[in-house]
């Protein structure tokens, strides 16, 4: 057992202890927030430091530390830091919960960091639940208990069902392989791949992560939960957890890829989920007047795009999915940071609330523009180049029809994103609307996010190479 | 009893749980449905552990941890439901429709 390999998670857990103790010892929400930023920075530094490390932190086969896991941990910890920077005064939360929010979000981040390293079913299950429970609670912290209770209940019922389905799938994998270790499962792939029950188990196992991704058929929570969750919580759910979910999907795919043609059933299922998620997300988003709900359906659609890369079942496919997930997290983050600022003291944020945003704060409108261009998929943002990678990975596999469907979907999506842009730039702000101001922390967070979105679009190669190296370690 | 019997039993349990979770209006009943699904998985683990797996410890440890996590889950879910009940005086999923359009 080597603790240095566990450093980022350990730092985050220590930070969690501090954040747990601080309010009890009488620290106000401002102090707790500073501690949370400190914990986030330390975790991020730890993750960057651990980037070149590789090995196994605990007994063999349970917890891999490699380029893949550490790369995703850097993204998750950076995401946590940016979300917390934007959550200085989470007005949509109960006042007494202001100092509790960073703790729950940090614990969920730890769960996600452990999820991408887990290479054993039990570890994966525990990490998955650790990533989920704190978010259930954080959503329920809404200042209006009725709204918080309702959206949290909806999210949690579906989350519990998805994780129970995953668990049921795990039981078959355990029974057939005789072991909970991924290594053992890959080792017996020759015998397992001819068993239909094995593929049934793998598909069920995917459920928990499709839920986190808000992909079909576990997308029902997305619009409701996005609409009324506290802004800061949903910023986290909409950005960081998608990266972790895609990373685990990549890990599971790399597990079954050696089976080659036998893996077609999983590939087929994922392809239909991708098509369904894209189409349903985009069509449903067309008639939304609530901006957060619209972004919720857009998240369903983007889960569909990312699944294109996962179902391609090639090194390029997994790399493009990982790349797109990182890019999507950044786009989604900056959109929600602006939404949270504009609708600061409202439970819901309608599209109309964005009217004349460029008059109220030109820089905020610019950040939102960058985010929306990314979501639409226009250059020079990562939305364009990421989709390009995804589509070319699918074309390599000869899936022209799938790419055509995705392209048609991207065109449909243009319509509702442009409606939002029209509100921002062409409609005048109401006369009583106050100009919006950045706080330094928020500006830093949105600035970093926007730079990531544009930089990954203009010079994709550094992140792409990193993602390709990560996927290469995954596939050995 | 053979392994197949256990697997069949757990499949029935799982289906019943899924049906309850999807169809019941009372949130407590939904919770019971989800618990049934998790118990079906536990039963699978124990059955495989008994009949087909050489290492006898893994499945049992897995089931113990499932029980622990399920308890944590129930605690969180019940506290959220309780909070909801204080506001609405109902835990009927059909009548909690603030969000529905």
Provide structural commentary.
The complex is a heterodimer of chains A (476) and B (101). Chain A is built from 20 helices and two strands. Chain A has 476 residues and is mainly alpha-helical. Chain A has one domain. The model of chain A has no long low-confidence stretch (mean pLDDT 90). Chain B has one domain: Helix Hairpins. Chain B has three helices and no strands. In chain B, helix 2 packs antiparallel against helix 3. With 101 residues, chain B is mainly α.
Write a brief caption for the model.
The complex is a heterodimer of chains A (476) and B (101). By secondary structure, chain A is mainly alpha-helical.
Number of domains of chain A: 1
- What order do the strands of the largest sheet of chain A run in, or round the barrel if closed? 1-2
Main sheet overview of chain A: 2 strands, antiparallel
Number of domains of chain B: 1
Task: Enumerate the spans of chain B where pLDDT stays under 50 for 5 or more consecutive residues.
Answer: none
Instruction: Write the element-wise H/E pattern of chain B from the N-terminal end onward.
Output: HHH
Q: Which CATH top level class of chain B fits?
A: Mainly Alpha
Distance between the termini of chain A: 23 Å
User: Largest inter-chain interface?
Assistant: A-B, 38 and 44 residues
Helix content of chain B: over 70%
Percent of residues in β-strands of chain A: under 5%
Element-by-element helix/strand order of chain A: HHEEHHHHHHHHHHHHHHHHHH
Straight-line N-to-C gap of chain B: 51 Å
Count of beta strands of chain A: 2
Report the mean per-residue pLDDT of chain B as an integer: 88
Report on the biggest sheet of chain B: none
* Cα-atom radius of gyration of chain A: 21 Å
Q: Number of DSSP strands of chain B?
A: 0
Structural class of chain A: mainly alpha
CATH topology of chain B: Helix Hairpins
Give Rg of chain B in angstroms: 17 Å
């Amino acid at each position: 057992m080597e603790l240095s390999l566990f450093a980022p998670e350990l730092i985050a857990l220590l930070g969690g202890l501090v954040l747990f103790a601080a309010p009890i010892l009488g620290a106000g929400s401002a102090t707790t927030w500073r501690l949370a930023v400190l914990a986030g920075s330390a975790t991020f530094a730890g993750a960057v430091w651990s980037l070149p490390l590789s090995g196994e932190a605990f007994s063999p086969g349970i917890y891999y530390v490699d380029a893949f896991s550490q790369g995703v941990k850097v993204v998750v910890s950076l995401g946590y830091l940016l979300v917390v920077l934007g959550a200085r005064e989470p007005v949509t939360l109960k006042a007494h919960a202001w100092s509790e929010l960073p703790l729950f979000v940090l614990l969920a981040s730890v769960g996600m960091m452990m999820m991408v390293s887990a290479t054993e079913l039990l570890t994966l299950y525990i990490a998955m639940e650790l990533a989920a429970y704190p978010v259930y609670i954080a959503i329920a912290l809404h200042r209006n208990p009725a709204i918080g209770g309702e959206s949290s209940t909806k999210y949690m019922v579906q989350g519990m069902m998805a994780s129970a389905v995953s668990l049921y799938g795990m039981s078959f994998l355990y029974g057939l392989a005789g072991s909970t270790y991924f290594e053992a499962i890959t080792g017996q792939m020759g015998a397992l791949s001819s068993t239909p029950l094995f593929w049934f188990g793998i598909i069920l196992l995917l459920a928990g992560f499709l839920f986190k991704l808000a992909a079909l058929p576990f997308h029902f929570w997305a619009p409701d939960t996005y609409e009324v969750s506290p802004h800061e919580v949903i910023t986290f759910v909409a950005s960081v957890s998608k990266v972790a979910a895609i990373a685990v999907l990549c890990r599971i795919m790399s597990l079954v890829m050696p089976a080659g043609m036998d893996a077609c059933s999983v590939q087929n299922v994922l392809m239909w989920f991708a098509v369904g998620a894209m189409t349903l997300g985009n069509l449903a988003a067309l008639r939304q007047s609530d901006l957060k709900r619209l972004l919720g359906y857009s998240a369903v659609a983007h889960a569909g795009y990312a699944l294109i890369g996962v179902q391609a079942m090639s090194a390029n496919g997994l790399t493009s999915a990982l790349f797109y997930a990182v890019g999507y997290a950044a786009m989604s983050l900056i959109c929600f940071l602006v939404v949270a600022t504009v609708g600061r003291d409202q439970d819901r944020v309608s599209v109309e609330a964005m009217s004349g945003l460029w008059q109220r704060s030109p820089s905020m409108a610019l950040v939102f523009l960058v985010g929306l261009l990314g979501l639409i998929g226009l250059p020079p943002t990562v939305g364009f180049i990421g989709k390009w990678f995804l589509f070319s990975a699918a074309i390599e596999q000869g899936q022209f029809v799938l790419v055509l469907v995705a392209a048609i979907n991207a065109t449909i999506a243009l319509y509702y994103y442009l409606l939002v842009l029209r509100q921002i730039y062409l409609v005048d702000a109401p006369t009583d609307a106050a100009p919006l101001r950045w706080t330094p922390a928020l500006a830093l967070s949105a600035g970093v996010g926007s730079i990531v979105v544009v930089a990954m679009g203009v010079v994709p190669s550094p992140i792409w190479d990193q993602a390709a190296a990560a996927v290469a370690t995954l596939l050995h | 009893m053979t392994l197949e019997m256990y697997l069949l039993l757990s499949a029935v349990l799982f289906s019943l749980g899924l049906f309850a979770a999807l169809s019941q209006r009372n949130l407590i009943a939904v919770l019971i449905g989800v618990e049934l699904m998790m118990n079906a998985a536990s039963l699978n683990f124990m059955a495989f552990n008994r009949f087909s797996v050489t290492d006898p410890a893994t499945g049992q440890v897995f089931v113990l941890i499932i029980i622990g996590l399920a308890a944590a889950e129930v605690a969180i879910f019940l506290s959220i439901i309780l909070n909801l009940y204080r506001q609405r005086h109902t835990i009927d999923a059909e009548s909690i429709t603030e969000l529905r359009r």
